[in-house]
User: Fold these one by one.
Assistant:
Number 1:
Amino acid sequence: MKSLSRKMMWCYAIGQLGWSIISGLIGSWLVYFYQPNQEAINEGMISLIPQGCVVLGILTFIGLVTAVGRIFDAITDPLVGNWSDNCKSKLGRRIPFMRWSAIPLGLIFILIFCAPIPRISAINTVWLFVTVLAYYFLITCYCTPYTSLLAELPH
């Protein structure tokens, strides 16, 4: 088995930069954007989904959306991994998934932060739910093959 060149190592590392940034932003800004704290509201931000424990008296809508998103992610990870393992493309098993999902992932990331109604609305809650599920599916379609690619690069 040959070793990886520095150029190949850098190319692989750059492939992680984009999804790491958007994952970090989703993790740190999603709640703040849809349910800003009182200080942010006083400065002009708008709550976009209902706040407080509104689902079964124990969950917030944003908590439910992110929990369902993570469960959906846990289900789709092995499915996409298997799909990628069995891919017979001339570009290899991993690259088609990464190419197909990169641009839609960027677009859905932007759409997550484009709530359709500029106030608290059930439409915003549905929007958030749909876009977060699409985000988790697309990040799986990129990251699972990306991670698997490392074992194949030296070949």
Number 2:
Amino acid sequence: SGGVCVAALTENEELFFVRQYRYPFKRELLELPAGKLEKGEDPLEAGTRELREECGVIAERVVPMGTIYPTVAYCSEIIYLFAAAGLNYTSQHLDEGEFLSVEKIPLKSAVDMVMAGEISDAKTVALVLKIAKLREEGKL
């Protein structure tokens, strides 16, 4: 049913990331908050839910940033991308069996990490670079 990914940008130009162990790769990956869509769930609602559950963040503004097709050769999955701002903090509400840590990383450092191959999750790479480009152009 697809998924969502949210780039929550603080007033200090930092992005919220989650570090989570991914079994297929047998290591922790650094990713923007994300999750699966429930059947029939609105992507915007799913994005705000995932941001709140994983990072304990509620955003005043959430802006659609397009979609990506992460595996076009063998899957029809669509991931909906969002930017979030006007952040307020609450507590995490992780799913049962979900273990992750939250980190804030300056946007410029996140771009450097993408370019150095330190961040390799496709949805995160795409959204970090989109956010950086729009910030550079003064459009976000």
